């Protein structure tokens, strides 16, 4: 048995030696988004060299410099062009393909965000390989773990592809630290990456001083039980005291209480904060898919039969309109 | 715009609590309630609306899967789709079929049927991949408008509002194009009994991947399918004070 283990280890070392991963950075032309550090964390698990690609419209130097500082990054490739306005999948796919053509990476990955969910499958199809979405664990350079059926089953798969295109779930990989890395910044391959297929028009982003949902330590989430958008103020007041982010169930978004980008669940955002407080949320399968990896779950609901209590560490069977202001008052 | 192609998938019904097979090869599907993937219902509804607005003339629904996939095609026909195409793949082949294969099939049908627009759901609730629309667009070299919450015909193209991480964004894309439908795009209609009856007379063409010259060789190997770790049962607390004390004790709040 011992000899088999060591043989496996040798094969593993041999196979990791030649890995080289391209991580596609996510940023807004000014700041590198935190999920990129999680993606580099996943790339380090694969082993081998890590190159980060920063594509943006202009002045991406700061973003590139920040990416170079991430622990474990060997190289940063920077591409600046008006073609990348709005980060359209059509334009960035061409850039990734010509970068891949030159450097022949074994892995292309990014954090699973709306941006990369659009981009990576397009890249994979152009490379004629089957991509793997929302990886939660890297077992070996070609064996990955992901969830299916709204997180109710865990699939381990072995990919037969020569190039692995992966999106990784940010909450499942430790973010690498910033400052230790000494990646060299270089220019990405030149080319005409403009695409006339799609044109970015505008963006209406929700503005908030509260922490960003996917990286918040504490999240307070509201559901249908809040009864109106105005009542979400109860949650905002408590969130502000705790320095928490505010999320929502699909029911609350559909009812128009809050904007869609606050939705947590199978088809919204996947979060795993230290503390998740579900207020007036019944706990449908689709919602649980987005938050059941939270360290501690608290449920406040007046229905003692609500499925949310089956996953909650602490449950409070109470009227949220009394309990939440009481908590806020006592914090 | 003349023709719209909608991709529909038969999946285990969203309300069913799934069970993993004891041999860890997959989940139990026999005798389990299946229905149309909820995002695909939204895609069908959008296509039917385009026809009602006289922007589209004909809607074709396509489904890839075992014989029972015809049931979801019938549902699509009852919602207002004109005709169906069933690409039969079953058994082991179907278990290992990936969105890449589906995309190649959809792209081929889109070309053969000379469609101007392909609409898919943004993800299937069984494999949760969220890849098919993007890959179909890539294979066809068409623009993609993913996670659409509003679609409008403007000039000779489409203006699409997309749901992105920080809020919404608007893009314009040329036709032909591929759209993936997000939850907020519309509320799918119920098929009425007369329409269900009429749908029985609408044609469904049967094809195989071979007919379309698409190679469906497996790209992955399933190592295992397992239950997720279960959470330890928690406790119901009597009041707010106890809750706050517990949260302080565990260091979550000060």
UniProtKB/TrEMBL annotation, chain A:
- Binding residue positions for FAD: 224, 249-250, 263-267, 280-287, 301
Cellular-component GO terms for this entry: electron transfer flavoprotein complex; mitochondrial matrix
- Origin superkingdom: Eukaryota
Please name the SUPFAM superfamilies in this protein's record.
Answer: Adenine nucleotide alpha hydrolases-like, DHS-like NAD/FAD-binding domain
Belongs to which family? Belongs to the ETF alpha-subunit/FixB family.
According to the record's subunit comment, the protein's assembly and interactions are: Heterodimer of an alpha and a beta subunit.
What this chain does, per the record? The electron transfer flavoprotein serves as a specific electron acceptor for several dehydrogenases, including five acyl-CoA dehydrogenases, glutaryl-CoA and sarcosine dehydrogenase. It transfers the electrons to the main mitochondrial respiratory chain via ETF-ubiquinone oxidoreductase (ETF dehydrogenase).
The name under which this protein is listed is Electron transfer flavoprotein subunit alpha
From TrEMBL, chain B:
The record places domain Electron transfer flavoprotein alpha/beta-subunit N-terminal at 24-216
Tell me the protein family, please.
Belongs to the ETF beta-subunit/FixA family.
Please give the chief subcellular localization of this protein.
mitochondrion
Quote the function comment for this protein: Heterodimeric electron transfer flavoprotein that accepts electrons from several mitochondrial dehydrogenases, including acyl-CoA dehydrogenases, glutaryl-CoA and sarcosine dehydrogenase. It transfers the electrons to the main mitochondrial respiratory chain via ETF-ubiquinone oxidoreductase. Required for normal mitochondrial fatty acid oxidation and normal amino acid metabolism. ETFB binds an AMP molecule that probably has a purely structural role. The electron transfer flavoprotein serves as a specific electron acceptor for several dehydrogenases, including five acyl-CoA dehydrogenases, glutaryl-CoA and sarcosine dehydrogenase. It transfers the electrons to the main mitochondrial respiratory chain via ETF-ubiquinone oxidoreductase (ETF dehydrogenase).
Q: Which Pfam families match?
A: ETF (PF01012)
SMART domains registered for this protein in UniProt = ETF
Task: Write out the GO biological process terms.
Answer: amino acid catabolic process; fatty acid beta-oxidation using acyl-CoA dehydrogenase
Looking up CDD domains in the UniProt record yields: ETF_beta
Give the record's keywords alphabetically: Electron transport, Mitochondrion, Transport
Question: What does the UniProt entry say about where the protein is found?
Answer: Mitochondrion matrix
Subunit structure, briefly? Heterodimer composed of ETFA and ETFB. Identified in a complex that contains ETFA, ETFB and ETFRF1. Interacts with ACADM. Heterodimer of an alpha and a beta subunit.
GO cellular component terms given for this protein:
mitochondrial matrix
* Listed PANTHER family: ELECTRON TRANSFER FLAVOPROTEIN BETA-SUBUNIT, ELECTRON TRANSFER FLAVOPROTEIN SUBUNIT BETA
Q: Does the keyword NAD apply?
A: no
- UniProt name for this protein: Electron transfer flavoprotein subunit beta
Single annotated GO MF: electron transfer activity
């Amino acid at each position: 048995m011992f000899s088999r283990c060591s043989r496996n280890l040798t094969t593993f070392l041999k196979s990791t030696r030649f890995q080289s991963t391209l991580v596609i950075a996510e940023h807004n032309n000014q700041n590198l988004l935190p999920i990129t550090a999680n993606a580099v964390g996943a790339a380090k698990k694969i082993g081998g060299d890590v190159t980060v690609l920063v594509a943006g419209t202009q002045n991406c130097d700061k973003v590139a410099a920040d990416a170079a500082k991430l622990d474990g990054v060997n190289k940063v490739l920077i591409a600046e062009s008006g073609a990348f306005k709005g980060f359209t999948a059509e334009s960035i796919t061409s850039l990734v393909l010509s970068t891949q053509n030159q450097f022949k990476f074994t892995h292309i990955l990014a954090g699973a965000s709306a941006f990369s969910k659009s981009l990576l499958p397009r890249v994979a199809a152009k490379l004629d390989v089957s991509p793997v979405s929302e990886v939660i664990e890297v077992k070996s350079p070609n064996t990955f773990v992901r969830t299916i059926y709204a997180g109710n089953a865990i699939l381990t798969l072995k990919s037969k592809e020569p190039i692995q295109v992966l999106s990784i779930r940010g909450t499942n990989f430790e973010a690498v630290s910033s400052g230790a890395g000494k990646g060299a910044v270089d220019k990405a391959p030149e080319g005409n990456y403009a695409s006339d297929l799609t044109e970015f028009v505008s963006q209406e982003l929700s503005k908030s001083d509260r922490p960003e949902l996917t990286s918040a330590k504490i999240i307070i989430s509201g559901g249908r039980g809040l009864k109106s958008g105005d009542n979400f103020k109860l949650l905002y007041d408590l969130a502000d005291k705790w320095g928490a982010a505010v999320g929502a169930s699909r029911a609350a978004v559909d009812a128009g209480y809050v904007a869609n980008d606050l939705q947590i669940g199978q088809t919204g955002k996947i979060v795993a904060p230290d503390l998740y407080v579900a207020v007036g949320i019944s706990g449908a399968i689709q919602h649980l898919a987005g938050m059941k990896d939270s360290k501690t779950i608290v449920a406040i609901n007046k229905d003692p039969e609500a499925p949310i209590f089956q996953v909650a560490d602490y449950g409070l069977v109470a009227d949220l309109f009394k309990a939440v202001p009481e908590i806020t008052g006592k914090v | 715009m003349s023709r719209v192609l909608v991709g529909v998938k038969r999946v285990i019904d969203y309300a069913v609590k799934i069970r993993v097979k004891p041999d860890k090869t997959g989940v139990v599907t026999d005798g389990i309630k299946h229905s149309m993937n909820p995002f695909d219902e939204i895609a069908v509804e959008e296509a039917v609306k385009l026809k009602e607005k006289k922007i589209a003339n004909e809607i074709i629904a396509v489904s890839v899967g075992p014989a029972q996939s015809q049931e979801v095609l019938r549902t699509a026909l009852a919602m207002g789709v004109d005709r169906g195409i069933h690409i039969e793949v079953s058994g082991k082949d179907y278990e290992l079929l990936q969105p890449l294969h589906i995309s190649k099939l959809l792209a081929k049908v889109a070309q053969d049927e000379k469609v101007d627009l392909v609409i898919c759901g943004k993800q299937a609730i069984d494999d949760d991949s969220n890849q098919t629309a993007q890959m179909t667009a890539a294979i066809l070299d068409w623009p993609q408008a993913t996670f659409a919450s509003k679609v409008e015909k403007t000039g000779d193209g489409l203006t699409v509002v997309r749901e992105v991480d920080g809020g919404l964004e608007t893009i314009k894309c040329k036709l032909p194009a591929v759209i993936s439908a997000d939850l907020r795009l519309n509320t799918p209609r119920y098929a009425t009994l007369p329409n269900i009856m009429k749908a029985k007379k609408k044609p469904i063409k049967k094809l195989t991947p071979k007919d379309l010259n698409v190679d469906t060789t497996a790209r992955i190997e399933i190592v295992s399918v397992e239950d997720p770790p279960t959470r330890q049962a928690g406790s119901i607390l009597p009041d707010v004070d106890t809750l706050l004390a517990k949260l302080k004790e565990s260091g979550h709040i000060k």
